[in-house]
Amino acid sequence: MPINNQQVTAHSFLRGLYEDDYYPDHVVDRGKAILLRLCENIEAHPPVGLTALYALAQAATEEFNDLEAEFEAADSEIESMARDEIAEDFWFIARAYGFTEADVEELIATREW
Q1: Of 21, 31, 96, 102, which is most buried with the most CB atoms under 10 A?
Q2: Domain for residue 97, yes or no?
Q3: Which tens digits make up the pLDDT trace of 5-38?
Q4: Would the pTM count as exceeding 0.70?
C-alpha cells in the first residue's frame, strides 16, 4: 500500500543511523521498513484516539525489539544515539498523522532497548 501522507513520503527515516558507519545499512533498512509499515497501518486503519495509536506504535516498537539481535550480529547495537533517532521518528509519525499530543515515551513504551 503506498503511503499518501506527504510529510511521511518526504521524510528521511533513521537518517542519523544511515550517516553513521556503526549502524549497518541492511539492518537500518529493516528498521526503516518497520516505521513505514507503521505509517501504512495508520493509513489503512486510522486510529481513533491516542490509545489506538499507542497500540499500533507499541507493536512496531516490539518489531524493533526483535531487530536488536540483528544489530548485535552485525557488531552494532541500539544504543543511546539510535534510541533517540528511533524515538524521534516515532514522534514524527504521530505528529504527521495529527497526534500532536502523543507522548513519545508512551509510543515506544514496549521497548527493550
Answers
A1: 31
A2: yes
A3: 999 999 999 999 999 999 999 999 999 999 999 9
A4: yes
